[in-house]
Amino acid sequence: MKTKHMYKAYLKPGKEESLKRFHPWVFSGAIARIEGQPEEGDIVEVYTAQNEFIAKGHCQIGSIAIRVLSFRQDEKIDRDFWRRKLQAAYDMRRNLHIGGNPANDTYRLVHGEGDNLPGLVVDIYGRTAVMQAHSPGMHVDRMEIADALADVMGDTIDSIYYKSESTLPYKADLYPENGFLKGSNTDNVATEYGLKFHIDWLKGQKTGFFVDQRENRALLERYAHGRTILNMFCYTGGFSVYAMRGGARLVHSVDSSAKAIDLTNKNIALNFPDDTRHTAYAEDAFKYLDRMENGFYDLIVLDPPAFAKHRDALRNALQGYRKLNAKAFEKIKPGGLLFTFSCSQAVDKDHFRTAIFTAAATTGRNVRILHQLTQPADHPVNIYHPEGEYLKGLVLYVE
Ligand code: SAH
């Protein structure tokens, strides 16, 4: 094992302001010089131009150069550190009665900056934890973190699956391999509000499921009764399964990925075997919306993938949201409900709302906002890191 050397980064004068307000990122442009030659993922101490300690964290190459783990000089980043942080995340979920209940054993245990662990995501699916590194530092420390996670979770889980092949910056040359760090659980049915879902953590997107839409799916269930529903960008069919339980008349799920359609059909069959109200289609969203009959659906869900992965893609992303939503406004039945979302971090609440407003205006329909939605409590936003608020949704009544 490599011996841990202490590296020091010195900020340019005045560049400590955001750290004084506990923002957890240090941008490369704020750094004057680094002492020693840290490798990606090493722990670096950060000092002001006046040589005062201000933070320490994982370093990496890129515009975010350091992700802060601690603002205390005497706090060591070791297995005990990870145990304390994971315990705090676990205690918060228990305090809020999230997870730990057979009818609801699907939740996010660690949400990066929101749990003071920038670059780390852990989702719990029944007796399996799926761990994902978004920074080289979390990758480098993965074994210590997995040990700490096993300590904190005790016998409530028996497997930890590591899934970072597509979330780490490829430039980092880390060659992460997906695989089990503990156990080997492949019994992949998890439960959310009493509904069952096959979770494909081995091959699925993200950690296998979009845990963040749980409360929004539950809201849809309340409005589903008697409605004809289109779940566009269905992935594993989360919204569709809730719509079925809510008593929808008909549910159509659409996704361009054949694998997603397969997962959706499996999840419907798991909860509503032989129920003929549901059909899934593997088709491009725009093609489907273009050819669908006017006034057929009276509830439409639009939950597309992030249109803007970076700030420079913002304009195109907003245009994408406008075009997509305009199609739904144009064709939804009078008295219909539109559940529309954006999960792009680069698109803020106001941008999104303006895009939806413009889409509505081009169709001239009378539209009212019923609900303004966001991510659930197990995806908390660190108050010092407002960028962590990424999921935005509106429920609209379209006359
Ligand atoms: N609503 C889902 C998550 C959606 S993720 C849930 O609650 O779990 C986004 C989905 O959009 C992915 O499954 C992806 O395959 C699909 N997708 C991406 N581009 C698409 C397109 N042009 N047309 C249809 N589906 C698309």
The succession of helices and strands, N to C, reads EHEEEEEHEEEHHEEEEHEHEHEHEHEHEE
Average of per-residue pLDDT values: 94
- From the alpha carbons, calculate the radius of gyration and give it in angstroms: 22 Å
Shape: globular
Distance separating the two termini:
65 Å
Q: How much β-strand is present in the residues?
A: 25-35%
Q: Count the E strands.
A: 20
Q: What does the main sheet amount to?
A: 7 strands, mixed
Derived from helix and strand composition plus strand pairing, the structural class reads: alpha/beta
Helix content: 25-40%
Bound molecules: S-adenosyl-L-homocysteine
Biggest sheet, spatial arrangement of strands: 16-15-14-17-18-20-19
Residue ranges: pLDDT <50 for 5 or more in a row?
none
Q: How many distinct helices?
A: 10
For the structure shown, list the relevant keywords.
399 residues; alpha/beta; seven-stranded mixed sheet; six-stranded mixed sheet; 10 helices; globular; binds S-adenosyl-L-homocysteine
Structure description:
The protein has helices at residues 17-20, 79-95, 136-140, 142-153, 214-223, 238-245, 258-271, 285-291, 314-331, 349-363; strands at 7-11, 25-27, 31-35, 43-47, 53-59, 64-70, 106-111, 120-125, 128-133, 159-162, 179-182, 189-192, 195-198, 228-232, 250-255, 278-282, 299-302, 336-342, 367-373, 392-398. The chain is of the alpha/beta class and 399 residues long. A hairpin with an 8-residue loop joins strand 7 and strand 8 (120-125). Helix 2 (79-95) crosses helix 4 and helix 5 (214-223) packs parallel to helix 6. The protein is globular, with a radius of gyration of 22 Å. The mean pLDDT is 94.
